Amino acid sequence: MDSILRNAKLHVDRNAQLVDIGISNGKIEAIQANLQSDGQEFDLNGCMVTSGFVESHIHLDKSCILERCQSNKGDLDEAIQEAAKAKAKFTVEDVYERGKRTLEKCIVNGTTHMRTHLEVDPVIGLIGLEGIKTLIDDYKWAMDIEICVFPQEGLLNNPGTDELMVAALENGATVVGGAPYTDSDPHGQIDRLFELAREFDTDIDMHLDFGTDPSNLDLDYVCELTDRHNYGGRVTIGHVTKLSMLPTSQLHDVATKLANSGVALTVLPSTDLFLMGRHQNYSIMRGVTAAHKLLGDGVNCSLSTNNVLNPFTPFGDCSLVRMANLYANIAQIGKQEEILECFHMITSRAAKILRLEGYGVQEGNPADLVVLNCQDQATAIAELAQPLFGFKRGRLTFSQAPAQINHP
Q1: Amino acid 16: pLDDT
Q2: How buried is 278 (Cβ within 10 angstroms: 0-12 exposed, 13-18 middle, 19+ buried)?
Q3: Where in the chain is the domain with CATH 3.20.20.140?
Q4: Which residues contact 300 (CB under 8 A, 6 or more apart)?
């Protein structure tokens, strides 16, 4: 074996037996106590090992532009306008360097898989795509990244964007995305997204129903097309903040529809919390959809970072553990089983959205692992456990020592 992670904790139960994890040729060869090998050893002293975190919705191309933008109103319209101004001056090198800064934060926080949403339109053209493709190639030793191409400022109302969507899908993008609420014809954009997905045999992941009025939900139409085209399990919708405005009984009805159609949902706590409720000056709404309640109705959900250091979200350290903790606080989660689901929404549930094969700490699977300074999954979320080591296909990608108290 090439390496062994000794004295590892794998399960939810902190009293579970410690095991060794043997790694060969980038895969987990054995999981048992007292493995014998001449490979490099890492003594984990009872720390927990989990599969690497899965960032199911992030924007590398427009991260780290806060110093170029204003955030006075702090609402969605301003964020789109300010990002559009900054985008006009992007270069391939600029996109690469800013994306690199964000990507490296993700790596040291234990992320091993990612879906990055990437904008195309007549202003930016394919500049973002070129920069991110190079970044993906340069960092494939640490991260598997797929590109979801989408039109942030509209598709049918923005001539030339459709051609760029096609060009991106022909040159590296593998998922079709959208933002129907910015289009002159939201359902027309959704129709076109399904056409492109079927033409290129890609999954769909769109920003949807971002607002505060739940009386008109585009997700109904998305579910209709998902059923019509037998696309269940290949469609994800993100944000969907309108669902946070629904009473429990109506939320249950919507959840049943999503579950029956096989449409997954990604909640983006940081961005949704920052942008929602800007029309209020007291008793301000959270605007974050209750993903843990949707899970109970059979909807697969994930939690993700979305934007980092830009007008949509002027902060962020790319820690999915922190994002799950933030969500748990917003959603007022205290039950042990629901805290565990917060962990699953940044690991196994997010992996299901990306349709990852061989995900999980099991013999024969790729050794894409992160070691956390804790002994169980609930503690990881509750105490914001620090990642200590990361491995991609068995190769050490980062390490950091836990803090030490210097007693007098």
Answers
A1: 81
A2: middle
A3: 55-353
A4: 264, 265, 349, 352, 353
Per CATH, is 55-353 categorized as 3.20.20.140? yes
- The DSSP bridge pattern shows strands 40-43 and 3-8 to be parallel
Mind giving me the DSSP string for 77-95? Answer: HHHHHHHHHHHTT--HHHH
Helices (runs of H) and strands (runs of E) counted in the chain: 13, 16
Nearest in space to 132 (alpha carbons), one of 162, 90, 166, 160: 90
| Residue-wise pLDDT tens digits, 376-387 | 999 999 999 999
Helix (H, G, I), strand (E, B) or coil at 272: helix
CA atoms within 13 A on the CB side of 329: 13
Q: Are 212 and 285 in contact (CB under 8 A)?
A: yes
pLDDT in tens, 58-86: 999 999 999 999 888 999 999 999 999 99
What is the structure's pLDDT at 389?
Answer: 98
Say which amino acid occupies 329. Answer: N
CA dihedral 168, 172, 174, 175 (to 10 degrees): -40
Query: How many CB atoms sit inside 10 A of residue 36's CB?
Result: 9
Chain region(s) in the chain for CATH 2.30.40.10: 3-46+361-399
Tokens of residue 162, six digits? 């459709």
Q: How many CB atoms lie within 10 A of CB 223?
A: 22
DSSP code per residue over 97-158: HHHHHHHHHHHHTTEEEEEEEEE-STTTTTHHHHHHHHHHHHTTTT-EEEEEEE-TT-STTS
What does the block give as tokens for 213? 């009025």
State the DSSP code for 16. S
Is the pTM here over 0.85, yes or no?
Answer: yes
* 343-378: pLDDT as tens digits: 999 999 999 999 999 999 999 999 999 999 999 999
> Does residue 41 contact residue 6 with C-beta atoms inside 8 Å?
yes
If pLDDT is split at 50, 70 and 90, which confidence band does 115 have? very high
C-beta of residue 28 within 8 angstroms of C-beta of residue 362: yes
- Domain made up of 3-46+361-399: CATH architecture: Roll (2.30)
Residue 174: the pLDDT is: 98
Q: Strand 3-8 relative to strand 19-24: parallel, antiparallel, unpaired? A: antiparallel
